[in-house]
Design goal:
The complex is a heterotrimer. Chain A has helices spanning 5-22, 28-52, 87-104, 112-131, 135-144, 146-156, 161-190, 195-201, 204-209, 212-226, 235-242, 245-255, 257-270, 272-297, 303-323, 327-358, 369-372, 374-387, 394-407, 415-441, 457-475, 478-493, and strands at 64-72, 77-83. Chain A is mainly alpha-helical. In chain A, a hairpin with a 4-residue loop joins β1 (64-72) and β2. In chain A, α13 runs parallel beside α15 (303-323). The longest helix of chain A is centred in the last third of the chain and has 32 residues, at 327-358. Chain A is globular, with a radius of gyration of 21 Å. In chain B, α1 packs antiparallel against α2 (27-52) and α2 runs antiparallel to α3. The longest helix of chain B is centred in the last third of the chain and has 31 residues, at 58-88. Chain C contains 27 helices and two strands. The chains are: A mainly alpha, B mainly alpha, C mainly alpha.
């Protein structure tokens, strides 16, 4: 590969960020266009990579578009990038969201240059996480992400923004401290930081030095905070609620997927036996996340908070899919990560428009908006239908794959019991989504919202992108399943298929 | 007279100086006590030198350096005390807490 | 006569209404003229109807009453799962296609009049097309997951159409209720799908049939799968105890009630059970469950129908009751019995709803206490409504008679106790239907304004349906329908037409129906008996019935609100904000506190620091002596 596609994808947003920060006297308008340009190009490259990706069965488990340079020779840390079927959809998702959040932020007027600087830096760091094949590089990108998020929430947020931003940082650092300990243990046990090598050579050497279970849990905790898994989830509602719309979209859409991605890429691939051993525990946590998340969602009265809690429930499905350890369930987990990114991204984006245009976020004070802002209502309802996994949306394919895969998983004896309980999650999802839709959009119109503006052209554009992607994946799941399978099949083969 | 006698003398002077430095309120007395501690150290240095390496004068030379540094220290210390007195009208160490966060 | 249909055209049956939905949503909606949307939608469904007839004749003339149509890959993961979007075209599908397309066509024509000048005209026809497409997809689907796919989509359309007038809180509420309660049933359906997939690795309906017949799929797994499927069916077909959404669904426009909540979507549950019948057949427990729930539903909801004053509600409870009959027919007699009633019921029940809509169009109300005397004013509506009523109560030789008689016969043969329930229901049905007829059309007008007969665009579909309500029963007089469905032999038409009277059961059921009509006449027309006095006489029963056995209160107030919302969920929410987050914030606070205390030691006094230094050094030296 002559051209370093992945480096280009990762560092173009950073280049944009630096231009915005360093070129003096940029107008707000120009800043927005620069940000849009430097997030659109990576999206274009990512789409190209997606089409150029070799989906044939012989490429299963092989990293493509690899790049490798020596970085810190003393500890064998390399600048090593590559994507396989698992990370490519997430890369695509992140570049897509990266571009859309710039559009979402079009109306930001406070400290515009600084805002877009942080937004682009955030995109770079998330992209780096999904492309890194070196644990140290992975960790560095993982940590960089905290900084822009902190500023985005604490400066452009609302409500208890400083509290939420601090809570987010502390939670994340808590998780990543444990994760760093896990990475170092892995390094001392194997002498390597290369994820692919470690996973292929197995842990025979490592276990002689240090038992696998503690390392597994150190790493897992780091990822579990991000996913989030009950009971490490309480940062999420606060951060989502108080973050500016674009940060919520990025947070729910791409950032928390880093947790699920890490679990598959690091925990499951490197520790197959340990994963299998502790899977029942994690499945139980997944079940709790699903049901508990949905139950708490039902009590929320703030639109953003409600959607945030629903994410906990939906990410529980991801955990269920991962630790049912079947090929179909793992593919389902991958699908669910992508699909949730799109659907929740849409919901947060539309919620942002509603909050911006009506100035109200309390569900109980809204009502009858479908008459006054029909387009926004339409977008929101479509997003809601995705969230309740209605067929023809990507949510249906993803959740059904997880259910089918987890229920029939041979790897974990009683995965079907957990799956059965998780099914209740889709009933609860229907209840909270429909309740929300009814309270906000249906019923008698309220006169003080008569003059509320409907979606403008930019908003229609990005909502439509979300909706098109959601239906495309829902109606033609093979767009993603083919790619995901090349990444998942070798992992699933650890467990005999 | 053996080395122990000198060392005990040195220790006693050091402890007196330490006690004074930690307990006295007047900054000037504290400064004097610090001098005592330094002199105790000088006694120890000279005594060690005299009994352990009688042919070398390392300890004596060191104590001269030490006395020199002590003199400089007293100069600066007194200057600081005067500065504090001008500003706060007191040299009571318990009332001076500029170091507090 | 050999008729064959190209495979592409079978796909068109489903694709035409779908295309109509897409065109209306994206093109004609923006053109502005609502007429286009209506014509487009009707044109699409008309073409589908013709194709459905073609499909029926091809199925009839094909050797095993089955066309094989290859599918497309949908969810395909090599070596893991292979879900295809395919078509199963057998006698059951062909009959259902006919029901869906004909009723949909009639209802959409009728809506031209009923929805005239409604601001949501485009939206209405878009949803109608989408519904028809999904319903056809559901009927055509050849594997369970695709069936579930369309199953959910018809649920969505039902939601959208019940809540069509979304500014009315009652409509929005009813829509939500309908979706959620059917979702509870779908939970069972999906669980059954998962169970079947994990047991067999396939979701192809034909293969599952094969496995059930071969006995590979059997035992507890089969029974649970069948019960799960039935749970889905019970949700969709409003069977007890999941029936509570259907009466509320009457908040939607009346043509919608006729199409979705009387003729087609609510019958999807019956269709599902019929489609998966080989599974039920091999599980006596599941079959018994179906029969019991069916019979209980039939009589309980007929009870409520006795006292309702809203004409649509009476019809809604009547629908539930008839669906119960169908379940009973499936449980005791088999596919042909249940589906035959479904087939007949679709036409006369759709007709009844269209009649109710016509009355509403004239009087502006659904309250029967403010109607009356419409016989003369609305002769067409009256005549067609009367025919449908006679058909539903099972008067020879109308359609309802033939299918109801078969259900009673099979119930008598297999489950005598349930037969008694069904027979009582016959009496109740006759009573409440004629109560509607007498209150609405008899006597003198009690409402406001000057009612008038509806326009031809509304009466014409009613007349067509009335003809169907008379004749569709004749299909099985010779046993043809049953043999087409794969049950029984055919015999002579005349022999069947009059020979039916040689069975005592026929007389019993006719007498029960006659008695019901007579009692209704005595109370509501001739007024020999006073309705109020009877109501007072049985006041506990009356209030129980009019409050719908308190089930709505139980579900909404007690289970949903008290136990879950204010109980469990509020508890969990409290745990979340005070327990788990409390722990997190508590940890943060205690670190903060520790810091606040520790910083007191930093007094800023040098001497104190000195003491600490000395203490520290002393401790270190001591430690060196002790441990060194």
């Amino acid at each position: 590969m002559d051209f370093s596609y992945l480096s280009a994808i990762i560092f173009l947003p950073l280049a944009g960020a630096l231009i915005i920060a360093l070129v003096p006297g940029l107008s707000a308008r120009l800043t927005r266009y620069i940000a849009a340009l430097f997030s659109l190009i990576p999206l274009g490259i990512a789409i190209y990579l997606f089409t150029a990706f070799d989906r044939s069965a012989s490429m299963a488990g092989v990293m493509q578009f690899e790049e490798s340079l020596s970085w810190i020779p003393a500890i064998n840390a390399d600048y090593h990038l590559g994507v396989d079927g698992l990370s490519l959809p997430l890369l695509l998702l992140t570049t897509l969201l990266g571009f859309i959040v710039v559009l979402v932020s079009w109306k930001i007027n406070l400290r515009v240059r600084q805002y877009f600087f942080w937004l682009l830096l955030l995109e770079t760091s998330i992209l780096g996480v999904f492309c890194s094949l070196d644990l140290m590089l992975f960790f560095v990108f993982w940590e960089i992400e905290v900084i822009p998020m902190f500023f985005l929430i604490s400066i452009w947020g609302s409500g208890r923004k400083e509290y939420s931003a601090t809570k987010y940082v502390l939670y994340t650092l808590f998780g990543s401290a444990l994760m760093l300990a896990g990475i170092l243990s892995l390094y001392f046990a194997t002498g390597s930081l290369n994820m692919v090598d470690i996973s292929q050579q197995g842990l025979a050497v490592a276990q002689a030095v240090m038992p696998a279970a503690p390392i597994f849990f150190l790493l897992l905790t780091g990822f579990a905070v991000k996913l989030p898994v009950f009971p490490l989830h309480t940062w999420l509602p606060d951060a989502h609620t108080d973050a500016p719309t674009a940060a919520s979209v990025m947070l729910a859409g791409a950032l928390i997927k880093m947790g699920g991605y890490g679990m598959i890429r690091v925990c499951v691939s490197i520790f197959p036996q340990t994963s299998q051993q502790y899977a029942p525990l994690l499945l139980a946590l997944a079940t709790i996340s699903v049901i508990y998340g949905a139950a708490v969602t039902l009590r929320q009265t703030d639109i953003k908070r409600l959607i945030a809690y629903s994410s906990i429930s939906h990410m529980g499905f991801v955990l269920l899919g991962i630790f049912a350890l079947g090929e179909l369930s793992l593919i389902g987990a991958g699908l669910q990560m992508f699909s949730h990114g799109i659907i929740t991204g849409l919901l947060f984006a539309v919620t942002g428009i509603i909050m911006h245009n009506t100035g109200e976020r309390n569900i109980k004070k809204l009502g009858g908006l479908a008459r006054q802002i029909p387009l926004i209502a339409l977008f929101f309802i479509i997003g809601g239908l995705g969230a309740i996994a209605l067929p023809s949306t990507s949510g249906f394919v993803a959740e059904v794959s997880i259910f089918l895969g987890a229920f029939s998983s041979n790897t974990i004896g009683n995965a079907y019991i957990f799956t059965f309980i998780c099914l209740l999650g889709i009933v609860l999802a229907a209840i909270y989504v429909l309740w929300l839709v009814q309270r906000v959009f249906f019923g008698s119109p309220i006169s003080r919202f008569n003059a509320v503006l409907d979606a403008d052209k930019t908003e229609i554009l990005y909502c439509s992108i979300f909706i098109i992607v959601m239906f495309a994946v829902g109606i033609f799941p093979s767009i993603l399943t083919d790619v995901l399978q090349t990444g998942i099949a070798p992992i699933a083969s650890f467990f005999g298929g | 007279m053996s080395l122990e006698h000198y060392l005990v003398l040195s220790a006693v002077i050091f402890c007196i100086g330490l006690y004074g430095a930690l307990s006295k309120r007047s900054a000037v007395v504290i400064l004097m006590c610090i001098e005592l501690m330094l002199n105790a150290a000088n006694i120890a240095l000279v005594a060690f030198s005299r009994y352990i390496t009688p042919t070398l004068l390392t300890g004596q030379v060191f104590s001269i350096f030490s006395i020199l540094v002590a003199a400089a220290e007293v100069t600066i210390g007194l200057a600081i005390i005067i500065a504090i007195y001008r500003r706060h009208e007191t040299i009571d160490a318990s009332k001076i807490n500029l170091l507090k966060w | 006569m050999q008729v064959t249909m190209p495979n592409e055209l079978v796909w068109l049956i489903f694709l035409l209404p779908l295309a109509s939905f897409i065109v209306i949503s994206f093109i004609t909606r923006l053109l502005g003229n609502p007429k286009f949307s209506g014509y487009l939608s009707i044109g699409a469904i008309l073409a589908s109807t013709c194709l459905a007839f073609w499909a029926l004749f091809s199925v009839i003339s094909s050797p095993h009453h089955e066309l094989v149509i290859p599918g497309f890959k949908w969810l395909f993961i090599d070596g893991v799962i292979d879900i295809r979007l395919g078509i199963i075209m057998d006698s059951l599908t062909a009959i259902m296609l006919l029901v869906v397309t004909i009723v949909s066509l009639m209802v959409q024509i009728y809506s031209q009049g009923y929805m005239h000048n409604d601001p949501g005209y485009h939206r209405y026809y878009a949803f109608m097309s989408l519904f028809t497409a999904s319903m056809l997809g559901l009927v055509l689907a050849d594997n369970l997951l695709m069936m579930f796919f369309f199953w959910e989509l018809v649920g969505l359309c039902s939601y959208l159409l019940i809540g069509f007038w979304f500014n009315r809180p009652a409509a929005a509420n009813a829509a939500k209720k309908a979706f959620i309660i059917t979702r509870i049933g779908d939970f069972g359906f999906l669980a059954a799908i998962l169970l079947l997939f994990s047991q067999t690795g396939t979701l192809d309906i034909a293969q599952l049939h094969g496995l059930a017949v071969a006995g590979t799929l059997g035992g507890a797994a089969l029974t649970w799968a069948a019960i799960g499927i039935f749970m889905g069916a019970a949700g969709k077909s409003a069977q007890f105890p999941l029936h509570v959404w259907l009466p509320d669904a009457m908040e939607g426009p009346t043509p919608v009630s006729a199409l979705i909540h009387a003729a087609t979507m609510v019958a999807a549950g019956i269709f599902l059970v019929a489609r998966m019948y080989p599974l039920f057949e091999h599980s006596p427990e599941a079959l018994l469950t179906v029969s019991i729930i069916g019979a209980v539903t039939a009589i309980l909801s007929a009870g409520i129908a006795l006292v309702m004053t809203d004409i649509k509600r009476v019809l809604a409870y009547s629908t539930i009751s008839q669906l119960g009959y169908m379940m009973l027919g499936l449980g005791t007699g088999g596919v042909a019995v249940g589906i035959f009633h479904l087939f007949n019921h679709a036409f006369f029940k759709a007709l009844l709803f269209l009649g109710a809509g016509s009355v509403n169009h004239a009087t502006g109300t659904f309250d029967m206490r403010r109607m009356g005397g419409l016989k003369k004013i609305m002769p067409w509506t009256y005549a067609t409504f009367l025919i449908a009523s006679l058909s539903i109560i099972g008067i020879w030789p109308l359609a309802g008679f033939w299918s109801k008689d078969e259900i009673l016969a099979s119930a008598l043969e297999n489950q005598p106790v349930l037969f008694v329930l069904a027979l009582i229901t016959v009496f109740m049905t006759a009573f409440y239907m004629f109560r509607v007829v007498f209150l609405t059309f008899g006597g003198s007008y009690r409402g406001e304004g000057k009612p008038h007969e509806s326009s031809a665009v509304m009466t014409l579909p009613m007349v067509v349906l009335a003809v169907l309500a008379i004749v569709t029963g004749l299909l099985n007089v010779s046993g043809w329908f049953g043999s087409f469905m794969g049950h029984g032999e055919t015999h002579g038409f005349i022999e069947g037409f009059f020979g039916i009277f040689s069975h005592p059961l026929t007389w019993v059921s006719l007498i029960m129906a006659g008695a019901g009509v007579l009692l209704s006449y005595a109370i509501y027309s001739a007024r020999w008996l006073s309705a109020e006095r009877i109501g007072k006489l049985f006041s506990p029963v009356y209030s129980l019935l009019s409050r719908k056995y308190l089930l709505d209160e139980l579900y909404e107030r007690i289970i949903a609100r008290k136990i879950f919302y204010e109980g469990l969920f509020s508890g969990l929410s409290f745990i979340d904000s005070h327990g788990i987050d409390g722990l997190v914030n508590g940890a943060a606070a205690s670190i903060n506190n520790a810091g606040r205390r520790a910083r007191k030691t930093h007094s800023g006094q040098l001497q104190l620091y000195g003491i600490f230094i000395i203490l520290g050094i002393t401790l270190i030296i001591l430690a060196m002596f002790i441990f060194g």
